[in-house]
Amino acid sequence: MIVFKKIFNFYIRSSIHVALSVYALVCMTHYMFHIKDNGVMAWFAFFGTIVGYNFVKYDALARAKKRNMRTELKLIALLSFISLLGVGFYFFQLKLITQMVSVLVLGLTLLYTLPFFPNKRNARNWAGVKIYIVSLCWVGVTLVLPLLNADVPLGLDFYLKCIQRFILVFVLILIFEILDMANDDPHLQTVPQQIGVKRTKIVGLMLLLPFYFLEFLKTDFIEKQLIVNLVLVMSLSFFLAFANEKRSKYYTSFWVESIPVFWWLMVVFF
Fold it and tell me: For residues 263 and 268, what is the distance between their CA atoms, to the nearest angstrom?
């Protein structure tokens, strides 16, 4: 049981689980826009997420050298290196325009992590902007890049899906911010810190309304998708409604981050 818990914690802490969520959202994009893909884009996003998230989480720790590298951190570093090789392998299989935009997304990630200006905090610590930067990165990786790589015309459906995907990630992050409220620096000015937990939940629930009803505006309208999206909205509403500072870390790091995977599996089996 102890061994299983260590393996599970490594799975979470090494960002494999969140990378699986990104992989699922890329697959959802392929499904929604009828893209036949050999997996290049999805695996590029998967490995890129492991590298990006581990860099964001452990870069400051590595540079500060506040503690010796534990075995788990060494394994995470090894996994990140292997994933970096995977990113490079799949990067050169992408089209030029996709490569260029992916570099821009990388730049946004670095801005989020590293202080580019002397005596200034990184974007991660800029008051109130963290949630928007992360949401934009997810939209870029899981929606924009796959469509660019498949030469899909960026029409009305694209813009509607951008809004929907942004809302989805935004609401997911709201749940994280509610649970992290007690530990977050007050200067971050996260949404719950600014308007309170109750109002944050109301905002999240209200945002799920346009997320659902924007589906009706698509030119390629699929009735079954409405049922799938309804289940997704209900699941998100449940997790948002019951989110609080006393919840276990697995509430968000596993269950909430499983929602994109659950969404994709509903499509696969439905």
Answer: 9
Report how far Cα 141 is from the mean position of its chain's Cα atoms. Answer: 9
CB 166 within 8 A of CB 139: yes
Which tokens in the block code for residue 106?
């990388």
Which residue type does 170 have? F
Count of the separate structural domains present in the chain: 1
65 touches 104 (CB < 8 A): no
Strands (DSSP E) contained in the chain are none
Under DSSP, the state recorded for 114 is S
Backbone torsions φ then ψ of 122, nearest 5 degrees: -75, 170
Question: CA torsion, points 181, 185, 189, 194, in degrees to nearest 10?
Answer: 40
Q: How far separated are the first and last CA of the chain, in Å rounded?
A: 34
For residue 142, give Cα distances in angstroms to 22, 30, 223, 224. 6, 10, 23, 22
- pLDDT for 201-249, tens place per residue? 999 999 999 999 998 888 777 778 888 999 999 999 999 999 988 888 8
DSSP 201-230: HHHHHHHHHHHHHGGGG-SS--HHHHHHHH
The model's pTM: 0.89
Nearest CA-CA partner of 25 in 104, 106, 135: 135
Query: In angstroms, rounded to a whole number, what is the distance separating the alpha carbons of residues 137 and 51?
Result: 14
* Of 186, 189, 191, 176, nearest in space to 244 by CA: 176
